[in-house]
Design brief:
The complex is a heterotrimer of chains A (111), B (333) and C (594).
Chain A: H1 24-32, H2 44-48, H3 59-67, H4 74-78, H5 86-90, H6 97-108
Chain B: E1 3-7, H1 11-22, E2 26-30, E3 45-46, E4 51-52, H2 53-67, E5 70-72, E6 77-80, E7 84-87, E8 92-94, E9 97-100, E10 105-106, E11 123-125, H3 126-135, E12 148-155, H4 171-185, E13 190-195, H5 205-214, E14 219-222, E15 227-230, E16 236-242, E17 247-253, E18 255-260, E19 262-263, H6 267-275, E20 302-304, H7 314-332
Parallel strand pairs in B: 1-2, 1-9, 2-5, 9-20, 11-18, 12-13, 12-18, 13-14
Antiparallel strand pairs in B: 3-4, 6-7, 7-8, 10-19, 15-16, 16-17
Helix pairs in contact in B: 1-2, 1-7, 4-5
Chain C: H1 8-31, H2 35-45, H3 48-62, H4 65-70, H5 72-100, H6 107-111, H7 113-116, H8 125-150, H9 165-192, H10 199-209, H11 212-236, H12 244-256, H13 268-274, H14 287-290, H15 299-307, H16 313-317, H17 324-328, H18 335-347, E1 370-373, H19 382-395, E2 399-401, H20 412-416, H21 420-436, E3 441-444, H22 447-457, E4 463-466, H23 467-476, E5 488-491, H24 498-501, H25 505-514, E6 516-518, H26 541-557, E7 562-565, H27 568-577, E8 582-584, H28 585-591
Parallel strand pairs in C: 1-2, 1-3, 3-4, 5-6, 5-7, 7-8
Classes of the chains: A mainly alpha (111), B alpha/beta (333), C mainly alpha (594).
């Protein structure tokens, strides 16, 4: 897949179109891990992220987009994660962040 | 005359005692420290009006002194039921009803090790700031003036990782209030507030928030600080995500202020077990009903007032004190 | 003498099926061994290791010494069945020879000797006695096995394995084999005379109380029944848990030749997997079981599911890999390695473009021959960092700080979740970084990193130390002085440091130099996991907290005033569950620097 562009390209529409987005995968993901819905977007995960320190990887943003039905590029983005687990130690909502990374990769990857 | 024991001599205890006395009860206030006033004694000014805290505490203390309420200082309660209060020295005080006004415990910021409280210089809690304001000397460890100050909201509140799920309610407003105070003391300094949500629930609070932004040029960054680390030149480097831009953010500051939350007292569970009371999942005491009996305990003759049931602002605590007298009157007739 | 009767057919068929299945399995497994493993096998056969293996086979496969250590009664149960049956067969052979001299006797002739020997007039009471005694021993084992089903606590097991249908068929057959043999032999003796203290006395009872015609009518069916039970058991054996009876033997030899499960699944794994007897000893140590009531992911179920190709990712992933069950497994199966290579099979998706961003990155600071790799988690426990800083300063050590300003993860978390190939990229990156800075010693505060540095990095010329080892060394060299200020401490063994790297004594020695050390109930090899293990990506926060709370309660019971540990992840987790202050070992040392 091509390099991702998180919403800043001219060609892709800017709107997250919930009416037309297919939320089936997103629902599946939330069914398997309902706690992901608890995210309050504080950004502690991304702030501490070992991979995010070195790249543009933004865990919070990727999983939020996935929850809105925006799947394109999510698998490749999640692949930047090193699974080091710092974020899980920080998440004030107790989200199993490493589990989320693996779940999203499993649901949105080609396997 | 019916005798009511009020456990705790903070503002909740004092206001409860005064209201009860006014209704003709014989009242004893039992306070474990050596003075009345509780945690508010360490506070400088109250939001949103910047009223000096002493105005409240001194007035209440004076009224207590004038009222004829019996005050027992240095008296720690070990257990109680509706007819007895047992003190640490073994003394049993007989009574007809008990009002529990034991308040809350401040969250120990050292537990959130990643913020560096107790490890690095110039990391303070909101309580430290009030104490410094009271002393009239707010300064860095080296005596210097801070050029950049960061406030972090929700330290020990809304955080599963320290087993404190609840919102402490007053820290947001306190954070805005203290940010303004810092800006008044150090007009040349930049002040940044890092928040997850800003909860301005009371009259005048939202206005104060707006003033902080507009008049005092305080920066609000939506993102929780993940770590603080010392820099070579003795400052603190903070990491957060600026969630509104979706990018990681680094900032060096001279001073980091942690807005510590309120947690329930460790005693609560023990009291509850001994007296058949209920604790909420947060550990605070659960009133019999959220609306119509919110100062009753569910056990006849035991009542609550103040922050023992939940984090509350000063005004709400004082209202509880009046309400509990009404409820006790209803019970004792 | 004729050694055939129609009732032998079930036994003969069963034995033949079993023999063919076993030979096929072993030949295929060995055939498919990785080349390196085959080499190890060939070069090992004619060494002393083979002799040692024979000894181990006797002590483990027959006597079950390790199970005796878990619980003597449980050990006796296994030993009486295995060793008892083995002796029954051997003594049976000797008996045949004693009666008939050295001549060819077909297999069924040995097994059903009592049936065929009725025509022999001469009696050797010694054998009657011996065979009866052995039968009695085996029967006592069977009785205990029945008892264990009803009341497992008597054998120190709170829970027993839930078995699949095939296992139940084989198990039932096994339970009937020896009672059936007793009945058949007793009936034979009742008609033809003879028998030892057991079969003899039962037979005289039968002869007295049962009519001769009834005895005659039961005689043949009883041997048919015995033979059928044997036949059923033998047919079921290669496909049920009883495969372990034979598989443990080659496993012991291969292990002696240094074969181990690899990062990727290999043919050798079959020996380990099928050597599992599903005894269920792994169930009780599992905290997912005892604290969370999860009862379908433990090693016994994992191995079973993997063996029958029905392993689910949710089962493979739901394990703390704390190693508590591995430490107790009587067969010594490498449970963690097997689970890890299962995860590799299920999850490893090689992606060449991954982690390209690591190239030419170096955020390290300082210079020195000693490198300090804090680890990702340690960056969230800055008290450890500042304590290490003070310790390095006190010892006058120049330090190269590898990852203080953000580094690259050691790779173990990825490996634990099965992404083995991607983990290698991080390992390669860090390794190059270490070499570039010419360090001779690498100190880390994170046991998770330590484990992978030691096991996988192969850092030639660089000594890898956990900070507990390093601090103790400094103290012993006199470079670091602490005052024995007293204080009551208790110590939590991190799984990766203790069971993972065998480091138990060094942190204890450091603590004892400062104050008193009080051990919790579960300690050292038996210590509990804090629950936050990176190996588990399934359990949620509340479940982690439940484990943390229950294990932390043990620290409070010691009467200590401080909990000490030496892993940032454990520290954070224990602190959540405990009301006592929790400190890293380095903090305790830094606070007491003389």
């Amino acid at each position: 897949m091509a390099a991702i562009d998180w919403g800043f390209s001219i060609n892709r529409p800017r709107t997250i179109d919930i009416d037309n987005n297919n939320l089936r995968k997103s629902d599946e993901i939330l069914r398997e891990m309902p706690e992901l819905q608890c995210c309050i977007g504080c950004g502690a995960c991304t702030a501490s992220c070992t991979a995010g320190n070195l790249t543009e990887f933004n865990f919070r943003k990727v999983h939020t987009l996935v929850r809105r039905g925006e799947y394109q590029g999510a698998y490749e983005e999640m692949n930047k994660c090193m699974l080091c687990g710092k974020c899980r130690l920080l998440c004030p909502r107790g989200i199993n962040t490493r589990g989320v990374v693996m779940l999203i990769k499993r649901k949105l990857g080609d396997f | 005359m019916k005798h009511v024991v009020v456990i705790g001599g903070g503002i909740a205890g004092m206001q409860s005692a005064l209201s009860l006395k006014k209704r003709g009860f014989d009242v004893t206030v039992v306070e474990k420290s050596n003075r009345l006033g509780g945690k508010l004694l360490n506070w400088h000014c109250l939001f949103p009006s910047f009223t000096p805290a002493t105005e409240v505490t001194d007035t209440l203390k004076q009224r207590i002194a004038d009222s004829g309420v019996e005050v027992r200082l240095n008296a720690e309660v070990v257990e109680f039921d509706r007819h007895h209060v047992v003190l640490a020295d073994g003394e049993r005080i007989e009574c007809d009803a008990v009002v529990l006004c034991s308040g809350f415990t401040l969250f120990d910021a050292r537990i959130k090790e990643e913020y560096g409280y107790g490890i690095y210089d110039n990391v303070y809690t909101s309580v430290d700031i009030e104490a410094m304001l009271n002393k009239g000397r707010v300064e860095l460890k080296n005596g210097g003036r801070p050029r950049r100050i960061a406030f972090l909201h929700c330290v020990g509140s809304r955080d599963e990782k320290v087993c404190q799920r609840h919102c402490s309610k007053v820290c947001c407003v306190t954070g805005v209030k203290q940010a303004i105070e810092m800006k008044q003391l150090f007009p040349e300094a930049d002040v940044f507030n890092f928040y997850m949500d800003i909860r301005m629930f009371g009259p005048g609070y939202e206005e104060m928030y707006r003033e902080a932004q507009q008049k005092y040029n305080i920066h609000f960054v939506r993102g929780r600080i993940s770590e603080a680390a010392p820099t070579i030149d003795g400052r603190l480097q903070l990491k957060a995500e600026d969630t509104l831009t979706g990018r990681p953010l680094k900032i060096s500051v001279d001073m980091l202020v942690l807005l510590v939350g309120m947690r329930s007292n460790d005693d609560n569970a023990r009291f509850a077990e001994h007296s058949g009371l209920q604790c909420a999942p947060s550990g605070f005491m659960a009133p019999a009903d959220m609306f119509l009996s919110n100062v009753a305990s569910g056990v006849g003759g035991i009542f609550y007032a103040g922050a023992v049931t939940a984090p509350k602002s000063v005004g709400e605590v004082l209202n509880d004190g009046a309400a509990v007298a009404e409820a006790v009157t209803g019970y004792l007739g | 003498m004729n050694f055939f009767a129609p009732f032998c057919i079930p036994f003969m068929v069963g034995a033949a099926v079993m023999a063919v299945a076993l030979v096929l399995k072993y030949v295929l497994w060995i055939w498919h061994l990785p080349r390196a493993d085959r080499k190890l096998l060939v070069s090992g056969i004619f060494t002393v290791q083979s002799i040692k293996a024979v000894g181990e086979v006797i002590s483990e496969s027959l006597l079950h010494r390790r199970i005796f250590k878990v619980n003597p009664l449980l050990g006796y149960m296994h030993a009486s069945l295995a060793f008892g049956w083995f002796l029954l067969i051997t003594v049976g052979w000797i008996e045949t020879i004693a009666y008939l001299g050295f001549r060819y006797v077909p297999l069924q002739g040995h097994v059903f000797f009592k049936y065929f020997a009725t025509c022999i007039a001469e009696h050797k009471p010694v054998f009657d006695f011996l065979m009866d005694l052995l039968l009695l021993i085996v029967l006592s084992g069977v009785a205990l096995a029945w008892g264990k089903r009803l009341y497992s606590k008597a054998m120190g097991m709170r829970r027993t394995t839930k078995h699949v249908l095939g296992d139940r068929v084989a198990l039932s057959a096994l339970w009937f084999i020896f009672p059936a043999r007793l009945v058949a032999e007793s009936l034979t003796c009742a008609i033809y005379g003879g028998g030892g203290f057991l079969t003899g006395s039962i037979s005289s009872f039968l002869a007295e109380h049962v009519s001769g015609s009834l005895l005659a009518a039961l005689y043949e069916p009883s041997w048919w029944f015995y033979s059928s039970m044997l036949g059923i058991f033998f047919v079921a054996l290669p496909f049920s848990r009883y495969m372990h009876i034979f598989t443990e033997i080659p496993l012991i030899f291969l292990r002696r030749y240094q074969l181990r499960p690899r990062e990727k699944e290999s043919s050798y794994d079959n020996f380990e997997i099928q050597a599992c007897s599903r005894c269920g000893i792994c169930l009780d140590p599992c905290q997912l079981q005892s604290e969370l009531g999860i009862n379908d992911v433990q090693s016994v179920y994992f191995l079973r599911d993997r063996r029958y190709n029905r392993l689910k990712l949710a089962v493979a992933n739901n394990c703390l890999m704390c190693g508590r069950c591995e430490a107790k497994c009587p067969v010594g199966i490498n449970l963690n390695s097997l689970r890890q290579n299962s995860r590799d099979t299920m999850r490893n998706i090689p992606d060449e473009s991954r982690y390209g961003y690591l190239a030419s990155l170096d955020r390290s600071q300082g210079e020195g021959r000693v490198g300090y790799f804090a680890g990702c988690m340690t960056l969230l426990t800055p008290r450890t960092l500042s304590a290490m800083e003070r310790i390095f300063a006190a010892a006058g050590e120049d330090v190269w700080w590898a990852d203080r300003n953000g580094g690259v993860c050691c790779g173990r978390p990825l490996k634990l979740s099965g992404e083995t190939d991607s983990a290698k990229k991080m390992m390669r990156y860090n390794k190059e970084l270490f070499y570039k800075h010419n360090i001779t010693t690498l100190v880390t505060s994170c046991p998770i990193c330590l484990r992978v540095f030691r096991d996988e990095y192969a850092l030639r010329g660089i000594e890898v130390l956990h900070h507990s080892e390093y601090i103790l060394r400094l103290m012993r060299q006199g470079r670091l002085k602490v005052d024995a200020a007293g204080g009551r401490f208790t110590y939590h063994d991190p799984c990766e440091l203790g069971r993972g790297c065998g480091i138990y004594d060094q942190p204890r020695a450091v603590i004892e130099a400062v104050g008193e050390l009080l051990e919790p109930k579960h300690t050292r090899e038996d210590s509990l996991c804090c629950g936050a293990s990176l190996a588990n990506t399934v359990i949620n926060d509340a479940q982690q907290l439940r484990i943390a709370r229950s294990m932390s309660a043990e620290f409070e019971q010691t009467g200590a005033s401080t909990v000490v540990t030496s892993c940032p992840l454990c520290k954070k987790t224990v602190a959540r569950g405990s009301s006592l202050p929790v400190k890293d070992l380095s903090e305790v040392v830094a606070e007491h620097l003389a």
